[in-house]
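Section handout, structural biology tutorial.
Before the tutorial, make sure you can parse a SMILES string by hand: atoms, branches in parentheses, ring closures as digits. In the record below the ligand is fe (ii) ion, and the chain has 314 residues. In the tutorial you will relate the predicted structure tokens back to the input. Do not try to memorize them.
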Amino acid sequence: MNEHRRRDRLGIHSIGEFLMTVPSLDDARRFYGTFGLDVSDEHGGLALRTHGNDHVWGRLRAGPHKKFEQLTFHCFEDELDAMRRHIEAQGVALLPTPEGAPAGGLWLRSPDGMLLQVRAGAKTAPDAVTHQSSPLPLDGTRCAPYRRHASLVQPQRLSHIALTTSSVPAQMDFYTRVLGLRLSDHSGEGVAFLHGAHGSDHHLVALAASAGPGLHHLSWDVPTIDQVGLGAITMQAAGYTDGWGVGRHVLGSNYFYYAQDPWGSFCEYSATIDYIPAAVDWQGLDHPPEDSFYLWGPDVPPAMFAYSEAGAWA
Ligand SMILES: [Fe+2]
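Predicted structure of the complex:
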């Protein structure tokens, strides 16, 4: 038996990839490359991978407005037909494959109008905790490397995607009831965190109340809080000085630094996020706002609450 799979749950297990329109591929190439991603020119746009991994986490294409166009989730191959029947039984219409998209998988829209795909695919969400601990001063040697020897920060994988929405409850209902994600935690109608049905980080998808649909941030996993800090100074030294952190979240427990991208959303370096194994029946709770955001860190800049896709969804 695969202990990383629940036979009593039907639902997607991972993020596959996203498609985003951005106003400048040159700006995107520099920003995501500096952040530590493997950026390549493909099909007239950009493909985003993490170094040493063939999986394409995201594709970017050029357009007048930044817009988070499309999000693909992966399910187990032998569950695709059951997912099809389940989605239709929930009253959600399946759509024809969009022009130019590869055949296969199920296409639908979220209540916000965002185009989603469910396809059979690799489990990109980890099956167990992947974190490392920083060395501790136990044996009379130096723990920190010399700064000149500090390693380049290269995130290992996309941990989660945080979306903005004008209705957190409607999206929460959709992603749990229709796609089988599970509630990790939420704070009223302000924010919700959802994990995969078959073992994933504390959140694969986060939902944040805002003026409309869009991307709030892409969160990329790094192994230690040191890497979060090194990532922050790398971005700042390259001129990407707007951001938030370093700090620690409460819900998810991860250490974070958010670097603002050229179009108002963010890329997050995230370390040691809580992990919810397939076997655990996590109790999703409603938390007061003061317990829902961060344990410690700098004051939150207003940009963290700004809506970055006004005009794109008209
Ligand atoms: Fe995050």
